[in-house]
């Protein structure tokens, strides 16, 4: 019986959604060649899917890295990466004042596996680099930096950290809040670059996705973790992420322009206490913003003058943005 499958059109402009759980080999020779690494065909959809491969190639190019991997969420990319490189008894440093679930993951989960989890002071605090040097130890395996941070857009001087650590420490940068359009962590010493791709990169509030990019050597280790754990993105979400990449630059340029206008407007408003936006001269790390960022995005964080009721009143009356509040409202 001929097992060869008919190949239909192969010239579609959009990369198709490969809604498949597995693949077939043409013959035993192909099985052998696959396992010897001589041929690259699909085997099982926990290991690969052509719907991801195109996105991964593009993300690697955008992040100026050799290779990239996609995940079903940003947290999933972070978890797989940290599980790949951290072992019991090792020290893990991270920017504590950032995305809350990274903090939860670090303390509540990594902590249970015997990893020493330590938060870095804010980069604009006094004697940051002296304090960094005292926290950095011979068993510091990974440093995780969120820059710009969610939601205050705090920055870290990556180059200065890179100068103070040795080759065995992996420097990871989560630059979700800048995207590759505004910031290129790899050029400043990052070993791995992580994004929550459901935010700016996805851009349409319709998918969850995450990515990590780096050298072939590091990425192949993370791929092994993903192959085993199976935290893989759905082919349809990968398709939508691929679509989103086509407009990333245009969207970011627009957000950079409008974000700055909004930040300036808010800063000049008598009822606004202060604004956190890296594009403003008043940003406490304006020097770092100039060094690292080519644009500042569409997230503008600000404090309203007044009491809690005034803040609720303001939020309940805004027309455009949807409300999405954390428990800090309580
Ligand atoms: C949202 C976010 C994450 C987590 O990503 P998910 O896709 O929501 O899992 C990680 N880092 C930063 C900076 C984020 O804003």
Largest sheet: 7 strands, mixed
The first-to-last residue Cα distance is 67 Å
Q: Give the class from helix and strand content and strand pairing.
A: alpha/beta
- Strand segment tally: 9
Number of helix segments? Answer: 12
Spans of 5+ residues with little confidence (pLDDT < 50)? none
Order of helices and strands: HHEHEHEHEHEHEEHHHEHEH
CATH H-level superfamily of the largest domain: Type I PLP-dependent aspartate aminotransferase-like (Major domain)
Gist of the model:
By secondary structure, the protein is of the alpha/beta class. It has 3 domains: about 15-50, no CATH class; about 50-245, Aspartate Aminotransferase, domain 2, CATH 3.40.640; about 250-315, Aspartate Aminotransferase, domain 1, CATH 3.90.1150.10.
